Amino acid sequence: MTTLTLVRGDITRQTADAIVNAANSSLLGGGGVDGAIHRRGGPAILEECRKLRASRYGKGLPTGRAVATTAGDLDAHWVIHTVGPVFSSTEDRSDLLASCHRESLRVADELGARTVAFPAISTGAYRWPLRAAARIALETVRNTPTDVEEVRFVLFDQSAYDAFAAQIR
Q1: pLDDT tens digits, one per residue of 129-146
Q2: What is the pLDDT of residues 100-136, one digit of tens each?
Q3: What whole-number distance in Å separates Cα of residue 99 and Cα of residue 119?
């Protein structure tokens, strides 16, 4: 059984087998979590991302999919990059947000990761409401068969932590 834990803090400071990156489709870094992971992880992550773009993901990583690279200088073995959906009030994209979590766990299982740290995917620049994102993330992780022993949601600020804490009960 997978243990779910919540931590308020900086995902780039976590010790885990794998850290999930809320990436943009280019895989080449960006703002928010993506930029922080690339900055703290160093050039090895970007180098592997460039290789992925030159081979399998020439048009970028599709929304809802996940792929792994080295973790570079992070205290992890791997970074699992996943592209969350941009929130829309006129189109239900919940399935894509759920897919980010399922696909990240699938990749983690392929790698043999036992501890995985997730951010609050799509809740920053992609404007997904925190409570809804927390519900989707937690339900998906609870209902996805995996060999991962601990899923840790690392939440940058108190409002994100509170939203996840309200849903984890």
Answers
A1: 999 999 999 999 999 999
A2: 999 999 999 999 999 999 999 999 999 999 999 999 9
A3: 15
List CB contacts of 101: < 8 A, sequence separation 6 or more.
82, 118, 121, 136, 137, 140, 141, 144
Interatomic CA distance for residues 90 and 138, integer angstroms? 23
List, in order of start, the domains of the chain with CATH numbers: 3-168 (3.40.220.10)
Residue 34, SS3 per DSSP: helix
Which uninterrupted H or E stretch holds 103? helix 94-111
Active site residues: 34
**Count of residues for the chain?**
169
Strand order in the sheet with 18-23: 3-8, 150-155, 115-118, 18-23, 78-83, 66-70
**pTM for the whole structure:** 0.97
